Amino acid sequence: MTAADLEAAHALSAELRWPHRPADWEQVFRFAEGLVAERDGEIVATGLRWRFGDRHATIGLVIVAPACQGRRIGHRLMTALLEGLEDHTVLLHATPEGRGLYERLGFARTGELRQHQGTALPAPLVALDPGWRLRPAGHNDAQALRFLDAAARGMPRDALVDELFASAEATVVLDHEEQPRGFAMLRRFGRGHAIGPVVAPDAQSAKALIAHLAGLSAGRFVRIDIDFDSGLAEWLEDLGLLRVDAPTTMVRGAPLAVSPQVRLFAIATQAVG
Is the pTM value of this prediction over 0.90? Predict the structure, then answer.
């Protein structure tokens, strides 16, 4: 896959009614390795992978044109994307249609996401305990954001965090006694805006981060993809963000070694995790 293929790739995702803008494809492709499948010179399938460090990778944006499904194109794409990742822990988020293929390729279910979206309502602020506060992120926070994301996701994703931080409309940091303990980003994505990643030590502080960014987005279309076990689903629906999808989180290889001190409450995107 090359940059010249992005227009056709976007057309494929639009055919499946995926919300990605051309700018969303361009952003994730900047640090990805991708493959396309062609039939008679026309791109009919895509797949991307992102290597993070020496032992981790994610796979996403695996798309096969509806007219070409059922011809094992997805299997061939995935097999090619997994070449060279035999000693890696590989993460992906599966649609119901793709889950069987991924299981046959050695992926195991490790959890679920809940995709919530809608027109955000004004969000009441969430109280924090003494010693905790929210503040806008500055350039000096870049290393702390990378560290917190790696601890919560279980893999080093410096290039991704730097890219998202540079393009975010707002990034808010959770401090405890002047030390960063969590963060959340508000970004342009798809039909409007996305909140994610959201990294925090507990659900209450995650709510504080999300409520702050949802309040900035009141009256606008907002999407957030949360961990099913986060306990945030009903609270998000009260903010006008209704559940619309439930992808499966799957991993091939060694389990992700996440820190017990911090948690990934909302992912960046379903493609990159």
Answer: yes
Q: For 115-266, CATH number?
A: 3.40.630.90
Q: What is the pLDDT of residues 158-196, one digit of tens each?
A: 999 999 999 999 999 999 999 999 999 999 999 999 999
Q: Are 175 and 133 in contact (CB under 8 A)?
A: yes
Ordered DSSP codes for 84-100: T-TTSEEEEEE-HHHHH
| Residue ranges matching CATH 3.40.630.30 in the chain | 3-111
Domain 3-111 fold: Aminopeptidase (3.40.630)
CB-count exposure of residue 258 (10 Å: 0-12, 13-18, 19+):
middle
User: Could you report the per-residue pLDDT of 11-67, keeping only the tens digit for each?
Assistant: 999 999 999 999 999 999 999 999 999 999 999 999 999 999 999 999 999 999 999
